[in-house]
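job 3f2a | input accepted
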Amino acid sequence: SGSGKSTILKMVYRSYLPGSGRILYDSALLGFVDLCALTDREVIGLRDREIGYVSQFLGAAPRSTSRGMVERAMLNAGFGPGEARAQTEDMLSYFEISPTLWDGYVGTLSGGEKLRLNLARAMAKKPRLLLLDEPTASLDPHAKARVRDLLMKLKAEGATMLGIFHDIAFMDGLCDRVYPMELGRFREPGDAR
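job 3f2a | predicted structure (193 res):
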């Protein structure tokens, strides 16, 4: 904790702009780019079309609905209205958010429901790059298994994922590379420092 993991994800997502260095990304929309050098408009386009971000906290306007948040993400990603609506309902069902909550304000959701909504919103558009900041932090084992299954499916379909996990068992078999961090620095796997 406190070693800068979330900060790195926020720099890749461009919520934070690093003071130096480059973040290179092979974009389907823009080609090979330095995320640090893109305009805000270009970054928003990448977020809409090919970069998903899942935080353990739900950032939403108070009068947003679950259905509206996922559907808007799908429409922004270029899906047609019918497909966006159907995929939204599929994802909300997959993450076991009750249909009685789909059109209610997200402020009424529990912590676990908000996290599952965040996952549904980011994963529904099938992002090319998925950033995950403790995506299972407040989930029970059943919900974690559903998240893992969908992450494995997205990975098999070619999505690249960069995630922060404290749950070592969850990472097993999901992660191709593990970069432990401590005191703001990467450690080599197995490095006992």
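job 3f2a | The helical segments are 5-13, 40-49, 66-76, 81-94, 111-124, 141-156, 168-171.
job 3f2a | closed
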